[in-house]
Amino acid sequence: MWLQALLLILGFILLYYGAEWLVKGSANLARSLGVTPIVIGLTVVAFGTSAPEFVVSVMASFAGKSMIAVGNVVGSNIANIALILGLSAFLSPLTTGRSVIRRDIPIMLGISFYLMFLSMNAYISRIEGITLFTGVILYSIFSYYISAKESRLAQEENGIPGSHGILLVPDSPAEARELLLEARNEIEGIGIIESRPKQIALILVGIAGVVIGAQVLIDSAVVVMKTFGVSEKFIGLTIVAIGTSLPELATSVVAAMRKEMDISIGNVIGSNVFNILSVIGGAAIIKPITIPGGFFQSGLIYDYLVMIFISFLPWLLMRKDYTIRRSGGLLLLSCYVGYMAYLVYRG
């Protein structure tokens, strides 16, 4: 029992640092290839921090533990908004731009409803998985197109494109230099690596850490929880979901403490989109996902509804002044505590 507990902790550590190295290597490689910081934030970082969820869900699907695969994504998305965004806002109020309210959150909600629609027959086929995975490709292209368009408009208006596509127009040359420095610091914050071989090596090491950590985490979590008579769905929705959300937690909390609010919000929303499209889509393509006991009978519908409601809350909190205040962060955290209590009660 103690050995399994130690392996569980080891799995968390490998997942966290593996994702950190993967993001760091990927971001530096993108930078060296001339990809803009905005695109890195919307795609590379979001996909990198979703890598643990991807590996855990795919490996769980291979092992026939489909409820962990689905529960991991649903639980991670709930944790990303209620726990991570809530904690970030509680530490420092988060302010973003109109594009998050008008574009990013509606996209996240639309994808969440689509996943619920696909799950109603308790089966996500390979074809349906392909539609999801195609969505992540289209989302990446769309993000790149929007970023390129906003960067071009910024240059035409002598502005500086901020993080997550927010257009910042300086009032003076001094402010322009300051904004450029802040944009560069967003990349430097994860550490600049100039050597291309080192970038690729870091990516490979990160992938290895995520894969090994995911396997250790699944095996030990299942053994520990089943010792206490806990169901696989509960395991996926709680301990595995929180563990695979550690990269998002670290990124968003640190960004909030550094007053880089758009990184916090963009990382969480982008990760949720990638979780549904690439994680569930990829797992279903490899092996169709079956929901034991049925979508409604198993009670998974309630978890989906919680995920959608929690995903809607940031829009509700930011719709007027684009800010999640500390009170809003406390509300999100309270929702997460309430959801955990509900899972414990439900067993």
| Rg over CA atoms | 20 Å
Q: Low-confidence parts, pLDDT < 50 over ≥5 residues?
A: 158-171
CATH architecture: Up-down Bundle
SSE class: mainly alpha
Characterize the main sheet. 2 strands, antiparallel
Order of helices and strands: HHHHEHEHEEHHHHHEHEH
Superfamily (CATH H level) name: NCX, central ion-binding region
Question: What is the number of E strands?
Answer: 6
**CATH class descriptor:** Mainly Alpha
Helix content range of the residues, please? over 70%
Determine the number of helices (DSSP H or I, runs of at least 4 residues). 13
* Overall geometric form: globular
The share of residues in extended strands comes to under 5%
Number of domains: 1
Strand arrangement, major sheet: 1-6
The overall pLDDT, averaged over residues, is 77
In CATH, the topology is named: A middle domain of Talin 1
Gap between N and C termini, in Å? 21 Å
Task: Please provide a written account of the structure.
With 347 residues, the chain is mainly α. It has a single domain (2-346), classed as A middle domain of Talin 1 (Up-down Bundle). It has helices at residues 2-32, 37-49, 51-62, 66-91, 98-119, 126-156, 173-188, 196-227, 232-244, 246-257, 261-286, 300-318, 326-346, and strands at residues 94-95, 123-124, 160-161, 167-168, 289-290, 323-324. The strands form three sheets. Strands 1-6 form a two-stranded antiparallel sheet. The chain has a two-stranded antiparallel sheet with strand order 2-5. β3 and β4 (167-168) form a beta hairpin. α1 (2-32) runs antiparallel to α8 (196-227), α6 runs antiparallel to α11 (261-286) and α12 (300-318) packs antiparallel against α13. The chain starts with a helix and ends with a helix.
